[in-house]
Design goal:
The chain is α/β, with parallel strands linked by helices and about 270 residues long. It has helices at about 25-40, 60-75, 90-95, 125-140, 150-160, 185-190, 210-220, 245-255, 265-270; strands at about 5-10, 45, 50, 55, 80, 105-110, 115, 120, 140-145, 170-175, 200-205, 225, 235, 240. It has a single domain (about 5-270), classed as Alpha-Beta Barrel (TIM Barrel), CATH 3.20.20.70. About 35% of the residues lie in helices and about 20% in strands. It has an 8-stranded parallel β-sheet, sandwiched between helices. A two-stranded antiparallel sheet has the order 3-4. Strand 9 (about 140-145), helix 5 (about 150-160) and strand 10 (about 170-175) form a beta-alpha-beta unit.
């Protein structure tokens, strides 16, 4: 099998210090958490940014200073900004981080609309997905295709056939989100069997589902995402002290299963970044 690429989603847009006081908000906290994940074995930092009070933002300037802080601490890591932002943001607002100079190596591309529970709707029309894909392509950035359900996989494949989404395709299967596909072995196997064999994929799952689904991905030849965005617990009832603790757990699981960990340059080669 390929070496395992570990992505750390270090803060997200929604989880707060009220749930876990170790959630990073400030530039310094984000840099510290990125470093903890990198030193533990993460090759990719999936990045949302916050204002100092925890408010989610897609400010290009905030991303710029967070990129600089992360690169000071772990210069070789791949930084993957989110273009998802937070519910209610405009498309133009969400796309701001792709216009950094130099452009990021990767960015996310959400592949469908989600009902997040209650009145929260995360809107990604087909027109918007095509717009995002074109802008990301124009900047020479590789997208990670965020798929919360089977229909989003089908959308990505249809837009690939039309030439909007380019090879090599890399998917991230997000399991267990309200409104999306469940976090079960059946559902993950269904998603993996729905993509072409020449694609790569990563797996993340919410809360208690995180480590069982990541373990299955490791066994199947996929890659792994963990982090405070998805799960704040190291084990039942035990809050994680850092993203590094969550990454360390994945490394231990991979070692037990005989899967080597990719460093950032190896991840770049696997993903077609170099």
């Amino acid at each position: 099998m390929e070496k395992l690429i570990i992505t750390a989603a270090i803060c997200g847009a929604e989880v707060t210090k009220e749930s876990n006081p170790n959630i990073p908000y400030t530039v310094e906290e984000i840099g510290k958490e990125a470093e903890s994940a990198y030193k533990a074995g993460a090759s990719i930092i999936h990045l949302h940014v916050r204002e100092d009070d925890g408010t989610p933002t897609q400010s290009k300037e905030r991303f710029r200073v967070c990129f600089e802080e992360i690169k000071k601490k772990c210069s070789n890591v791949i930084i993957q900004p989110s273009t998802g932002g937070a519910v209610g943001m405009s498309n133009e607002e969400r796309l701001q981080p792709i216009f950094l100079e130099p452009p990021p190596e990767m960015a996310t591309l959400d592949c469908g609309t989600m009902n997040f529970g209650g009145d929260e709707i995360f809107v990604n029309t087909e027109t918007a997905i095509i717009y995002f894909a074109k802008e990301i392509n124009n900047r020479g950035i590789k997208y990670e295709l965020e798929c919360f359900d089977k229909g989003m996989v089908d959308t990505a494949l249809r837009l690939h056939e039309k030439g909007y989404i380019k090879d090599p395709m890399h998917f991230n299967f997000v399991l267990g989100v309200v409104g999306g596909i469940n976090a079960t072995p059946r559902d993950l196997i269904f998603l993996v069997n729905s993509i072409p064999k020449n694609c790569t994929y990563s797996v993340c799952a919410i809360g208690r589902h995180e480590f069982p689904m990541v373990t299955l991905s490791i066994m199947m030849g996929g890659h792994a995402r963990v982090g405070f965005e998805d799960n704040i617990y190291l084990s039942k009832g035990v809050l994680a002290k850092s993203n590094g603790e969550l990454v360390n757990k994945v490394v231990r699981l991979a070692n037990e299963l005989g899967r080597e960990i990719a460093n950032p340059d190896e991840a770049r080669k696997i993903l077609g970044l170099k």
